[in-house]
Design goal:
Helix content: 25-40%
Number of helices: 28
Pfam family, one: Ig_TPPC8_1st
Oligomer: single chain
Number of strands: 45
Protein name: Trafficking protein particle complex subunit 8
Shape: elongated
């Protein structure tokens, strides 16, 4: 019988015990009673079950005449033909109780355990030592529609007397004693008969059987009009949860995954023989034992020792708990290669898959077809008044008949037991004195010869008294009775009776609320070892008592003791409860301090998870796959993320195998994918096995999808490789790969992933100058063009690109495993939104002409390593291109490429999706208090119209220059998109001092401080010449160029092409000068003396240059003229570390706006003359004079260098500059000497005097030496000069 349970918080320990021990009431009815009750789709017993609890409080007087209240009094009403379930049937009913629980969601309360426990109580048989399950009373029920109800009552009484005469037989029912209460019920159908006639019959019954032994029950007050019930009923169907599921013809048709629990009678230890009753409501026939054994053996597919064998992820665990009834039909016909095949067994039994009865809630197990349709409600002819009458029947029976009867029986048993006990003790004492004691030294096993007692023996009388007091809630009297009987049973070595008495004595002490007596939990331990037949009930009740006293660890041990290899379902249920006990139990943490404060209690979380794993394993073996997945999921919550990597792998692999065996291939893929995690501790061989099985299962999934759906399907998400999405870099304007370009020709570098200065401020400055020059002005909030996006850039706006532009993504691929992984056919997964709608290449066979996807053939990811790969796509239409992930084929590493062609390779096609997260925001208070992240749109690229695209080629672009060397480079420019016209081509350079173009320069307004030079290129020109000049500072220098172009048909849009190359500058010459104003004869013209020093800085052992020769010296100034007739410059070649010193004189001339080339000292034997009025020399000098003085001294030099091929030499030409301002000239102006202050530089002076004077001091004591002081005003203004003479007499 199924009793109602508290599905919210679960019943308490007291309620569990009271549910296990209820007064048993038999029902003996005439066939016409079933006709009346059948209108409500019920039997009479089923009609009473929802109302079997006494709704009011009853009272009795105990043996001492003390008033005692009876609360929570509940009846166990059974048909008199009821028989205990056989072993096979009991296992089936227990499995259904677990399978058909209202909910199997993860919850601290387990309603399936309550259902299993209640089913366990109902499956226990009646025994001689447990009178609490014997019938205390019998309800004799006759319908008022019977032709002669009184005669029928007499026949029922005679039948009951005959049954009671055989009380105690193996197959028959058992009564508490021969004085069993008989209660007569006359049931009346309000729609078919007259109520007055029924009342007359009731009066006749009272005259015959007494007023307290009869009752009239009127039902069916509402005519039957279908299956709908009256709206006033307390529930739509209060009987549904109490109705057992009955066997039908489909019981023999079962699925391959059976819930048969054990091969022997280890689950319930119940009789193996089925006793059929005479009532039509009894259970039908069952399958024979050989069939059940065969199916049980087929389920032994999971080995408990395979702890580290293959298992699913949390998503797979969740998928197992879903309703699978839709997929079960296909699953029955399509079995995996690793699944246990049950077709031969079914064929041998003559069964087909079409006749299988499958449980809709789980799809597993041996399911009995219900005898009623659950969509049709019970009690369709009953009203609320009828329900009140049914409850009134139960109340009247209990208060007026049953409780008084039990009170009388308890008093009689107490008196009889007391009288016989004294006599029994006297005889026993004398026997012991004369013959000795037979008391054993310890408990014996149940194999000892059983002791048989007379039904009226004093020991059984005491046991009856205890059971009766226990049922009435008089636990004090019950304990004393059990305790007294226990001693007698122990003395007689009646160990089964002894164990039962100890169990009931311990329960009686526990139920005595407020009593100070210590609960004898050791009684349960003795009972468990003494009566294994009833060990399950004893362990369950003992655990409930221990849990109620917060002894959860001991309760768990009691439950674990009942687990065995031959009882999978029982072991699973008890192991799960033991795990929950460990979760609620706690221990004190280790503390070295002697603090009196109580430390926090720590739950035994690891024991909980371990036993939940064991429970999940046993659930799986018993066919309860949904409960197995739930148990594994609970355990995974403990192990996951806490370093229990191997335990996680066991969980994933176990559930993965369950998914695969149940044809849940997609869930199995998710489960096995969790094994390929980054922090896996498995060996390389085990990871190889995981990877191979993962690929194999995915192949099964693809084949399954191809069979179901003939069209293309999307790619599955794979766990390998690991991609950190935030580290992805996007380059929206990638240079197209070009062919047939080889040295000495090189292409403009543009932006690459290896460019460290891609976001340098110099590029923004150059772009701003180009935009201002091309469009006349720039926006106040000018934003430079960004081509490379990463996690360090501002990604709140969509990247911009144009049609036919190559987009590149740099992906960091990580292989966390200890084995190499091969990826083939790697390509990007995208979604394009344009004028034609949304298009995607996510499907396997999707070929889209609007976006070209480039495929990387293969890459091998080494064990525990990371690789950066670059993948490309090219949009060909305007719209929004979103990069969603990367697709590839995952293959074993040791597969030959030729094997893939012939289809001999095992591979799986899948994808890894990207997930970006912008930087965390912290601007507002709301953002600081919460976790708010900025949007990251770097993978959503806006594609604009086609734009011209320039290709720039450099011919003989050097990688090495000498300081001051001037090298010409030919630059070729072309438009690689001829369909789009190009216009407004401008070149920008940020180093005009060392770079010049043979193009008209666009002058800026700020001529002196402008560091960016702009040149306009005529689109009709195909090539120009560019000159490079080696910098004065040796080392690595950067050549930065930016090419600007636009489409004349599209305004405010332009394209940029960058070039950045590194040039190493080596030392050549150093140039210094010592400048001084000197007097120049009679005309007093201002004259400068320039001492020139040229030094070869090459190392002595350097052979790269044969020597450096000064070929030309020029003074370029708008104020000074060089006097060539008074210049002295030695001739010759400067070898390494040699210096040249020359003297030049310059006189002041008429100042001009433009500088003029004064007299040039030409050295014909060394090179050719340089015309400084021509480019690029004019450009270099002008740029030099923008940042340095107005007078420039130029030294031109030549050198020879051996060619790279070793044959011939190359002529190298270079120039060095030295400049000064006229106001900065001092007496010494060598570069190593600091100049004087500006005030001292305004006036120059010289003195004229005799250095040797002859004077006779005898004649004249004072010697006068004439000194002439010459002052020269070097400025253009009047200067007042004050001087004083200082004499040095030393």
């Amino acid at each position: 019988m199924m009793m109602p349970i508290n599905t919210v918080g679960g019943p308490s320990a007291s309620e569990v015990i009271q549910q296990a021990f209820c007064p048993a009431i038999a029902v003996l009815s005439s066939p016409d009673v079933d006709v009346v009750c059948s209108k409500n789709r019920l039997t009479f017993v089923e009609l009473l079950q929802p109302f079997s609890r006494l709704s009011v409080e009853g009272q009795i007087r105990d043996v001492n005449q003390a008033l005692h209240s009876v609360t929570h009094f509940r009846l166990s009403v059974r048909d008199i033909s009821w028989r205990p379930a056989s072993t096979i049937l009991a296992r089936r009913l227990l499995s259904e109780a677990v399978t058909n629980a209202d909910s199997i969601e993860i919850n601290p309360h387990t309603p399936w355990y309550d259902s299993w426990r209640e089913t366990l109580w109902s499956c226990l048989e009646m025994t001689d030592h447990d009178f609490a399950r014997h019938y205390l009373a019998t309800l004799l029920v006759v319908s008022s529609s019977h032709p002669n109800p009184m005669e029928q009552f007499q026949q029922l009484n005679d039948q009951l007397t005959q049954l009671m005469s055989s009380n105690g037989t193996v197959d028959g029912p058992r009564w508490f004693n021969m004085l069993s209460l008989r209660y007569h019920v006359l049931i009346h159908d309000a729609c078919d008969g007259e109520t007055s006639k029924a009342e007359e019959l009731l009066q006749t019954m009272r005259n015959a059987y007494g007023s307290h032994g009869c009752h009239l029950l009127v039902i069916n007050s509402k005519p039957k009009k279908g299956s709908m019930v009256e709206p006033g009923l307390p529930a739509p169907d209060p009987w549904l949860r109490f109705l057992p599921r009955k066997a039908s013809k489909s019981d023999a048709s079962i699925e391959g995954e059976t819930v048969v629990d054990g091969a022997d009678a280890g689950e319930m230890e119940l009789p193996g023989k089925v006793v059929e009753g005479t009532n039509s409501q009894s259970l039908g026939s069952l399958p024979k034992m050989p069939i059940m054994d065969a199916l049980q053996e087929a389920m032994q597919e999971i080995n408990i020792n395979s702890i580290l064998a293959p298992s699913p992820s949390t998503s797979a665990l969740s998928s197992l708990t879903r309703d699978e009834s839709t997929n079960m039909k296909n699953n029955l016909s399509q079995r995996s290669a690793v699944e246990i095949k049950d077709d031969p067994l079914n064929a041998g039994l003559g069964m087909t898959t079409s006749g299988l009865s499958v449980d809709e809630a789980d799809g597993t197990g041996l399911i009995l077809a219900p005898s009623i349709v659950e969509s049709e409600l019970h009690g369709g002819c009953l009203t609320t008044e009828d329900l009140d009458r049914i409850q009134g029947l139960v109340n009247d029976f209990c208060l007026k008949s049953l409780l008084p009867h039990m009170e009388r029986q308890m008093r009689l048993l107490n008196e009889s037991a007391s009288a016989r006990k004294s006599t029994h003790r006297s005889l026993l004492s004398a026997t012991k004195r004369w013959f000795g004691s037979s008391r054993p030294g310890g408990l014996q096993t149940t194999q000892t010869v059983a002791v048989s007692y007379h039904p009226e023996s004093v020991q059984l009388q005491l046991r009856r008294l205890g059971d009766l007091a226990f049922l009435l809630g008089h636990y004090e009297l019950a304990y004393h009775s059990y305790h007294s009987a226990k001693k007698d049973f122990e003395a007689d070595q009646a160990w089964l009776h002894y164990a039962g008495a100890m169990e009931m004595a311990a329960l009686s002490v526990f139920l005595q609320n407020g009593h100070n007596r210590t609960i004898p939990f050791h009684y349960f331990d003795k009972a468990l070892t003494t009566m294994p037949y009833w060990a399950t009930r004893c362990a369950v009740l003992a655990s409930e008592c221990l849990k109620a006293t917060n002894q959860y660890s001991d309760a768990a041990l009691q439950l674990i003791r009942l687990t065995s290899e031959d009882a999978d379902l029982r072991s699973a249920v008890l192991l799960e409860q033991a795990a929950l006990c460990f979760l609620r139990s706690a221990v004190k943490p280790n503390s070295s301090s002697g603090d009196a404060a109580k430390p926090n209690m720590v739950p035994l979380i690891r024991k909980y998870a371990f036993h939940m794993i064991l429970a999940g394993h046993r659930f799986g073996k018993s066919g309860q796959k949904r409960h197995a997945s739930r148990a594994y999921q609970l355990a995974l919550q403990v192990y996951k993320g806490h370093g229990w990597s191997l335990a996680e792998d066991h969980i994933h692999y176990t559930v993965g195998r369950q998914c695969l065996n149940r044809q849940q291939i997609e869930a199995a893929c998710h489960a096995l994918g969790a094994l390929l995690k980054p922090d896996s501790l498995q060996t390389a061989a085990q990871q190889t096995a995981y990877l191979n099985e993962f690929i194999h299962v995915h192949q099964l999934l693809n084949k399954h999808r191809e069979n179901e759906i003939k069209t293309s399907t999307s790619l599955p998400v794979l766990p390998l490789p690991v991609i950190d999405s935030n580290q992805i870099r996007v380059l929206v304007d990638t240079k197209d790969p070009t062919e047939n370009i080889s040295p000495p020709v090189s292409e403009a570098s543009h932006v690459t992933f290896n460019d460290d200065e891609v976001h340098h401020a110099k590029w923004a400055n150059m772009e701003e100058k180009l935009v201002q020059s091309a469009f006349g002005t720039t926006h106040a909030m000018f934003r430079p063009t960004n081509l490379l996006f990463s996690n360090t850039t501002n990604n709140t706006a969509h990247p911009q690109t144009y049609c036919d532009d190559l987009i590149s993504l740099e992906l960091p691929l990580t292989n966390p495993l200890r084995i190499p992984v091969l990826l083939c056919d790697i390509r990007l997964v995208w979604n394009f939104s344009g004028a034609d709608g949304n298009l995607s290449n996510l499907l396997m066979t999707n070929n889209n002409p609007l976006v070209t996807t480039y495929i990387l053939p293969r890459i091998v990811l080494n064990p525990s390593s990371s690789h950066k790969v670059v993948l490309n796509v090219k949009p060909k239409a305007e719209g929004m291109l979103t990069i969603e992930g990367v697709a590839f084929d995952l293959r074993p590493v040791n597969v030959e490429p030729s094997a893939a062609v012939v289809g001999l390779v095992s591979s799986v096609s899948g994808r890894v999706m990207f997930s970006l997260q912008g930087p965390r925001l912290n601007a507002t208070q709301q953002e600081r208090h919460g976790k708010v992240y900025a949007s990251d749109k770097r993978l959503s690229i806006q594609v604009g119209p086609r734009m011209p695209k320039l290709q720039v080629l450099f011919n003989s672009l050097p990688e090495f220059l000498f300081s001051g060397e001037i090298r010409p480079v030919v630059v070729e420019l072309s438009n690689i998109c001829p369909s789009v016209p190009v216009a407004n081509i401008i070149i920008a350079s940020n180093d005009p001092l060392h770079l010049a173009f043979d193009l008209p320069r666009i002058e800026s307004k700020n001529v002196r401080n402008d560091q960016i030079a702009l040149y306009r290129w005529d689109p009709t020109q195909k090539s120009i010449k560019m000159w490079l000049k080696g910098t004065e500072n040796v080392g690595l220098t950067s050549l930065d160029l930016m090419f600007f172009s636009s489409n004349p048909a599209i305004k405010a849009r332009y394209r940029l092409l960058r070039h950045c190359s590194k040039i190493f500058v080596s030392s050549s010459l150093s140039l210094g000068a010592w400048i001084q104003r000197v007097p120049s004869g009679e005309n007093r013209t201002e004259t400068l003396a320039v001492q020139l020093q040229v030094r070869n800085l090459r190392d002595a052992d350097d052979t790269s240059l044969s020597g450096i020769a000064v070929s030309q010296v020029a003074l370029l100034s708008n104020r000074w003229h060089l006097r060539s007739d008074q210049a002295t410059i030695p001739d010759g070649v400067l070898h390494p570390q040699e210096s040249l010193i020359g003297v030049l004189l310059a006189i002041r001339g008429t100042e001009k706006r433009e500088y003029n080339e004064s007299v040039v000292l030409k050295l014909p034997s060394h090179g050719r003359a340089v015309d400084f009025q021509l480019d690029p020399y004019r450009s270099f000098v002008k740029e030099f004079q923008k940042t340095t003085p107005d007078t420039t001294l130029v030294v031109c030099w030549t050198a020879t260098q051996a060619s790279e091929d070793g044959f011939g030499t190359l002529l190298i030409e270079g120039q060095h500059y030295f400049g000064w301002n006229s106001q900065d000239i001092a007496s010494s102006s060598l570069p190593e000497t600091s100049l004087k202050s500006h005030q001292q530089q305004l006036v120059s002076y010289s003195m004229e005097y005799s250095t040797k004077v002859f004077h006779d001091f005898d004649q004249q004591k004072l010697c006068v030496i004439p000194v002439t002081l010459y002052l020269h005003n070097c400025s253009q203004q009047q200067v007042n000069v004050h001087y004083s003479a200082n004499f040095n007499t030393g």
